[in-house]
Amino acid sequence: ETLHESSASLNVSMLANVGIVDGVSTVEPTINFKKNRKLHVPIIVYHGIRATKDSDPESIRKYNTSPELLDQELSYLSQEGYITISPKDVLMFEKNPKIMPEKVVMISFDDGWRTHYTKALPLLQKYNMTATFYVYTNIIDKGSFLAWSDVADLSDAGMTIGAHTLSHPFLTKIDPMVAEKEISESKKVLE
Description:
This protein has 191 residues and is α/β, with parallel strands linked by helices. The protein has helices spanning 58-61, 67-79, 87-95, 114-126, 148-156, 176-190, and strands spanning 19-21, 24-27, 30-32, 38-40, 43-46, 48-49, 64-65, 83-84, 104-111, 132-135, 160-163. The strands form 3 sheets. Strands 1, 2, 5, 8, 9, 10 and 11 form a 7-stranded mixed β-sheet that branches.
């Protein structure tokens, strides 16, 4: 059973799957903090939000989620009483775990595709949800990616904007000093 079989069959245990399933990677990490305190926060990661084309290779297909399917998944989470949280919320709950709601989920959108703004944002707003948008900064204002005005609008709409490096390299395959620059410089650009 996968996350995308249908919103009717989607259940909490599916949120614990690890890996990419039809464009969504899911993981339920245990976030370890000092003094052996732990928070369990399901995280749903989306990439492309668009219908898959017949001409798309499998390497592209597996990272896409249709807007209709995203709508079904957000509807399910809403109907089941999930509250979306941000990375900043996780830090707050670490300091005071008693205030963390029972059903939380963190939603993220990776890479900064324009459809995150045109397709995902309206659906998030429809269900009164938030998400974290991780963008790599060298592609902002280029092609099918977010414009700076989109990034500002996402932030103004209550979404979290996170740095996803300058150029989206495979960080484990590059020099550690270059990786550090990719991470720190992209954060500076977004600030």
